[in-house]
Structure formats: structure tokens, C-alpha cells
Amino acid sequence: KFRNNILNMTQIFSTLLESYNPGLANHSKRVSFWATQISAEMRLSSMEQFHIEMVSMFHDIGKVMIPEEFH
Questions:
Q1: What is the 3-state secondary structure (H, E, C) of 39-62?
Q2: Considering the entire predicted model, what is its pTM?
Q3: 23, 25, 50, 63: which has the fewest C-beta neighbours closer than 10 Å?
């Protein structure tokens, strides 16, 4: 249950980040999906896969600081 709560909070935060640039809608979810698929194929532990799933949702966090005229 703890993992699900963390994952839900991460997904909510990711959605908020994507609201800065609507063109990226669901982009982080797709990146997270594929990163998780690759980590499973690499036979990483379930904890490593979980970490990859979470952090991949934040791979574009730096874009929040980019001025609006560059979006």
C-alpha cells in the first residue's frame, strides 16, 4: 500500500509538472512505462523497477524553470 501511495503522489506531481506545457500531456507517463518495461527486461529487482518508475516521471522537471516564451 505504501508503494501505491508513493506512486500516486508521484503521478499527481508529474501531472502538475506537465500542466506547465500541455504539449507534453502524458509524456512522463509514457516515459515511465517504457523505462519500467526496459528495467523488467533487464531483470532488475522489483525495488529497482519501482524506483525507475518513480524517478522517470520527473525526468523533465527542469523544464518548469524555462520561461514561457520558450515553450
A1: HHHCCCCHHHHHHHHHHHCCCCHH
A2: 0.69
A3: 23
> Is 31:59 a contact under the CB 8 Å cutoff?
yes
With H, G, I as helix, E, B as strand and everything else as coil, classify residue 71.
Answer: coil
Burial class (CB in 10 A: 0-12, 13-18, 19+), 57: buried
User: Which of 43, 41, 42, 58 is closest to 7 using CA atoms?
Assistant: 58
pLDDT tens digit at each of 71 positions of the chain = 887 888 888 888 777 777 777 777 788 889 999 999 999 999 999 999 999 988 888 887 777 777 767 76
